């Protein structure tokens, strides 16, 4: 994953969203002061979690992938699985909460905390015959989000919803299938092998009986980079080249985490908004396009990943020099998604997407696509704004978003005595309870 370049064209802000952004960006009361990479526990400012900025990678693979640590730290101010270097495999699941009471919800949060703490230390095969084997951590991270529906009046959470959390709306190019949208809870399970993802799912099913009912699920994976650099999606383009710099505490406090100054409920500080989008590719019609047309649609070269005005994948596009879009079309995906102007800097967010491949559809066509995953401080200012800019982009004729949801990733579990949502449940406890 390449780091976003800071363009000289970016500067001070003007509108309300931008003011909101600047206030939030003040971050964790100076804890971000060091600004640099957390090379290990000692480099993390006091009060900060190891997951605030990306953990030092466990080296890089032969094809240049930043490898996640073998054992991803579970405790911290933020949950793992966001700035964690991307593992190869992922499972995305949304559940409905079917417990009856507030006490059930508390039980669920506590049980998930215990299980993820244990599983993070080592994933054990569920099969008893091999359960005696030493469990391996497999770089597992499990990231828990909550949906807007949980904040109705059933469990006393009404009035305490994160400000920007709502059911994911249908955008103009969407064809949403209600059975594959939304949910009370989301899990993003990431590991270096697909069996670890399945073991976690089985564990959750066993341990939460009577509390959760699965709503939708999508298994996904990263492709290797071919031949090098960022990995390719199933449209054949390098994907994940440009992202915010997760090594910079200042950057993640501006773009990723809910900070004490965002005007959010106190319990939500340290959390992050998650946008999940299940997007199908129409590879048949895409493959009929000449490569030069495909390149114009993305604004990047297919072979190298370079912007159409550059040579290397890591070159920054220079839109000011190309105001009429002669090199990089004005309606190309990268130009609309990130115009690199003063006013659009605050809409950047972290993409952590995976590919999916699910056999054939009823017409015998390959069912391929993307689980688009975005993390951010403010859903409206970031994902929704970018999505609106992409409205009717040329790429939209070759893809169909059909599912997903908006979720709020709860703040991290701080230590052995803490549990997911402890602060939320405490702040909303009935006075006589
Ligand atoms: C099937 C759907 C999509 C595909 C195949 C796709 C593919 C790509 C590719 C190939 C790139 C260029 C390489 C890179 O910088 O990673 C890119 C960039 C980007 N995409 Fe998408 N994308 C999709 C959907 C979206 C959506 C829904 C959003 C946000 C709402 C989005 C936001 C971005 C952003 C912000 C960039 C970086 C632009 C830059 O900073 O230069 N993409 N995408």
Q: Can you describe this structure?
A:
It is globular and about 65 Å long. It has nine helices and eleven strands. The chain is an alpha+beta fold and 433 residues long. The strands form two sheets. Strands 2, 3, 4, 5, 7, 8, 9, 10 and 11 form a nine-stranded antiparallel β-sheet that branches. Strands 1-6 form a two-stranded parallel ribbon. α1 (16-25) packs across α4 (249-255) and α2 (102-121) runs antiparallel to α3. The protein binds protoporphyrin IX containing FE (HEM). Protoporphyrin IX containing FE binds next to β7, α7, β10 and α8.
Helix and strand run = EHEHEEHEEHEHHHEEEHEH
Provide the list of bound ligands, each named once: protoporphyrin IX containing FE
Helix content: 10-25%
User: What value does the average pLDDT take?
Assistant: 89
Low-pLDDT ranges = 1-16, 29-47
- Report strand %: 15-25%
Number of helices: 9
- Per DSSP E runs of 2 or more residues, the count of β-strands stands at 11
Q: What is the molecular shape?
A: globular
Based on CA atoms alone, the radius of gyration comes out at 21 Å
Q: Which class do the helix and strand fractions yield?
A: alpha+beta
Largest sheet: 9 strands, antiparallel
Instruction: Kindly report how far apart the N and C termini lie.
Output: 48 Å
